[in-house]
Design goal:
By secondary structure, this protein is of the alpha/beta class. It folds into two domains: 62-272 and 485-493, Aldehyde Dehydrogenase, Chain A, domain 1 (3-Layer(aba) Sandwich), CATH 3.40.605; 276-473, 3-Layer(aba) Sandwich (Aldehyde Dehydrogenase, Chain A, domain 2). It has 18 helices and 18 strands. Helix 3 packs antiparallel against helix 5 (118-143) and helix 5 (118-143) packs parallel to helix 6 (179-190). The longest helix is centred in the first third of the chain and has 26 residues, at 118-143. The protein is globular, with a radius of gyration of 26 Å. The relative contact order is 0.13. It binds nicotinamide-adenine-dinucleotide. This is Succinic semialdehyde dehydrogenase. Belongs to the aldehyde dehydrogenase family. Residues 44-498 form the Aldehyde dehydrogenase domain. Its EC number is 1.2.1.79. GO terms for molecular function: succinate-semialdehyde dehydrogenase (NADP+) activity.
């Protein structure tokens, strides 16, 4: 059933500049000047999603600019790797303080470039503070030399060292422009690497803002640099010079990056797409779960890699849950405002609006029922789309299995937990999931059966994402490698084992026959096992 609203007028013109006062032309120009590019570089413009108005005019980097950035980074990395961990820690903690102190500027920038609400933007500020504090305070325990059990007890002195990879390439997307840009660079920098980063052009100003602050915090020049351009133009130079690739984006791009990294035999961490599921168990608190579903499906207008697009509800509570969820969704305030008054912001680009519209229209044409939303809102701005809940979604509809990356969720019901888990796992993706239950242990047991890198119990995504001491990332088509925790920093290092053999090694001394040596050696192994050596 399609919506019963009359067609809305097409959004036509920008309504005068509505950029907040903090985003002065001077600031925007200063940030744009941080892009590594020639003085006479070609330019690329971006538009503010709230109005479609021109926002930034950025220089475009060429492959030669990328190579120059790497050349400078290689020199800078040598001295950066020689700085003490405590010096790096001080810089990161200063960065933490600067981000919090200047948060209003960051929030304005994120909203202007991405079209998200201030509340969604605030989560990115919080995330960067958590990430910089965590790696500043914990890097030493991951990176400092570690004694390891030697080959021969007491005689082999074995140490594991962690060297930086060198120069790490970071490719970050437009949907979480601060979290994804600075968040992935922080751990690489803390581990002693230099970083050459390509933030998505649409949200490059936010990324450049974080670079600006990191330099103000004391990071030496050239240790972290940014280039701007299309993947098809500078992606090759970025990959060919990198010692490690950290990529966030679509699964299709991730496959190409993985194959290029394979050709070069460098490591890559890939944070890719998802089709995340929420399971509401029959004992869930319906009001809490309905609030949770709103929080799970519509942050950043659904342009969040860990947001929920499939909702499985126990049949016995389906109607009550749907009523509660639909009522809350219909009350959401959609719009553009540089304050905390809005619940759902704009999509970021015309391409996103096109995908969302195409997915919903296809589903409706094939028989899906629109329970809430279901249409674009050109009266609010060029790329707004209503938070949308669909029922009666069938496998022949595109959005049944393909990621929409917008404010659209499909509701299904199930009869048994086995059926719920089978449906939730019927996807090649495996990024994030959410399980709701009145019984924590039951919720956690179901969570462990879901094929996803993070599963939140009685929370949408923030509990797992914010648990920065634990790994975060995707299974299956959702990626390779993890950010956060030990994995999130150790991946940026090259482990090296130094084993110093003292007095006697594995070669028999001249005074002992090979037969006696064999008896002694195997006897020693039996003793080691008997005394409980691991
Ligand atoms: P995309 O893959 O088309 O582009 C992402 C970025 O990568 C762009 O800036 C692009 O220029 C760059 N890029 C693409 N190919 C490249 C190459 N070969 N070399 C260098 N750079 C290259 O993705 P998109 O459609 O813009 O972003 C949305 C997708 O990203 C969704 O599928 C979403 O799920 C995913 N995503 C995942 C996470 C996560 O953490 N798992 C986070 C955000 C977005």
């Amino acid at each position: 059933m399609a919506t019963d609203h009359a067609p809305l007028p097409t959004y036509t013109a920008a309504r005068g500049s509505v950029l907040p006062a903090s985003l002065t032309p001077t600031l925007i120009k200063r940030l744009a000047e941080r892009v590594v590019a020639a003085v006479d570089a070609a330019r690329v413009g971006t538009n503010a999603p709230y109005t479609g108005e021109p926002l930034a005019d950025l220089p475009v980097s060429t492959p030669v600019d990328v190579e120059d950035a790497y050349a400078r980074a290689r020199i800078a990395q040598k001295s950066w790797a020689a700085t003490s961990l405590s010096q790096r820690k001080k810089i990161l903690l200063r960065f933490h303080d600067l981000v919090l102190a200047r948060q209003e500027e960051a929030l304005d920038l994120m909203q202007a470039e991405n079209g998200k609400t201030r509340r969604d933007a605030l989560l990115e500020v919080v995330d960067i503070a958590i990430t910089s504090r965590y790696y500043a305070r914990n890097a030493a325990r991951y990176l400092e030399p570690k004694r390891r059990r030697g080959a021969i007890p007491l005689l082999t002195h074995t140490t594991e060292l962690r060297h930086p990879k060198g120069v790490v390439a970071v490719v970050s997307p437009w949907n979480y422009p601060l979290s994804m840009a600075a968040g992935d660079a922080i751990a690489a920098l803390m581990a002693g690497n230099a970083v050459v980063q390509k933030p998505d052009t649409q949200t490059a100003l936010t990324a450049l803002w974080s670079l600006d602050l990191m330099h103000e915090a004391g990071l030496p020049a050239a240790v972290w640099q940014m280039v701007v351009g299309r993947g098809s133009s500078i992606g090759g130079a970025l990959m060919d010079n990198a010692d490690y690739m950290m990529f966030t984006g679509s699964t299709a791009s991730g496959r190409k990056i993985a194959s290029d990294a394979g050709r070069r035999l460098i490591g890559a961490s890939l944070e890719l797409g998802g089709k995340n599921a929420m399971i509401v168990l029959d004992d869930a608190d319906i009001d809490r779960a309905a609030d949770g579903a709103v929080a799970a499906c519509f942050p950043s207008a659904g342009q969040l890699c860990v947001s929920i697009e499939r909702l499985y509800v126990a049949e016995s509570i389906r109607d009550r849950f749907v009523d509660a969820f639909v009522a809350r969704t219909k009350q959401l305030k959609i719009g553009a405002a540089y304050d905390y008054s809005i619940d759902v912001g704009s999509l970021t680009t015309p391409a996103q609006l096109q995908t969302v519209t195409a997915h919903v229209d296809d589903a409706v044409a094939k028989g899906a029922t629109v329970l809430a939303g279901g249409k674009a809102r050109p009266d609010l701005g060029p790329w707004f789309y209503e938070p949308t809940i669909l029922a009666d979604v069938t496998p022949d509809m595109t959005l049944h299995e393909h990621e929409t990356f917008g404010p659209v969720v499909s509701i299904y019901s199930y009869r048994s937990i086995d059926e719920a888990i089978a449906q939730a796992n019927a996807t090649p993706y495996g990024l994030n999931a959410s399980v709701w239950s009145g019984n924590g242990a039951r919720g956690r047991a179901v969570a462990a059966r879901v094929h996803a890198g993070t599963v939140n119990v009685n929370e949408a995504f923030a509990a797992a994402w914010g648990s920065i001491d634990a790994p975060m990332g995707g299974m299956g088509d959702s990626g390779l490698g993890r950010r956060h925790g030990a994995d999130g920093i150790l991946k940026y290092t090259e482990p090296q084992t130094i084993a110093h053999q003292r007095i006697q090694g594995f070669t028999p001394p001249a005074s002992i026959s090979p037969e006696t040596w064999a008896t002694l050696l195997t006897g020693a192994l039996k003793v080691l096992k008997a005394v409980g050596v691991r």
